[in-house]
Design goal:
This protein is mainly α. The protein has eleven helices and three strands; from the N terminus they run H-H-H-H-H-H-H-H-H-E-E-H-E-H. Strand 2, helix 10 and strand 3 form a beta-alpha-beta unit.
């Protein structure tokens, strides 16, 4: 708060006594200096909650804030984040969309794609197994199976069983065939 604004809050007698060089004037100068750091933070507070502008150290907190804490769950507080910061920022930016579609195939697929940066997740609901979902993980995300499983378990409806598998048909197509020499 600027000195002039603080001075306007004082009774008229104090305002007259707060001239330059007075004790009250010096006190108002100190009050202005004490308010400056807090006012600087408050002036830019919206940046704390903007996923692409927030400081790196605050991104994991925002991920938890939008109910994606299962993604950043770590056994120790000093453990490294399981995803690059850009992926976490994407999850925060899409937090409302993910919350709206939680428990649906679209919501699960979107969460998986945002977290891994890989498209091509296939969700099958076998006709012979009601309330069961098979999640086929594309080969590009096969190395992140633990993360995929954590997301699937958190995003699925409670009454649904789930099976997470890598897609062997797609994996075989992506690998070069081995011919005898």
């Amino acid at each position: 708060m600027r000195r002039a604004a603080i001075e306007r809050l004082l009774p008229a007698a104090y305002q007259r006594a707060a001239g330059p060089g007075s004790v009250l004037g010096a006190l108002l100068d100190v009050m202005e200096a004490l308010h400056a750091p807090d006012e600087a933070v408050l002036a830019d507070v919206d940046a704390l909650f903007a996923p692409y502008r927030t400081p790196d150290g605050f991104v994991a907190y925002l991920t938890r804030w939008v109910a994606m804490d299962h993604v950043v769950a770590a056994p120790r507080a000093d453990a490294p984040l399981p995803l690059p910061l850009g992926r976490l920022r994407d999850l925060v930016a899409h937090g409302a969309l993910l919350a709206r579609w939680r428990g649906t195939p679209y919501g699960m697929r979107t969460a998986l794609e945002l977290a891994t940066g890989v498209t091509g997740f296939v969700l099958d609901e076998p006709a012979d197994r009601p309330f069961h979902v098979v999640v086929r993980v594309p080969p590009a995300a096969a190395d992140r199976l633990a993360l995929v499983t954590r997301i699937v378990e958190a995003e699925k409806p409670a009454a649904v069983t789930v099976e997470v598998t890598t897609d062997p048909a797609t994996a075989a197509q992506d690998q070069p065939s081995k011919e005898p020499s």
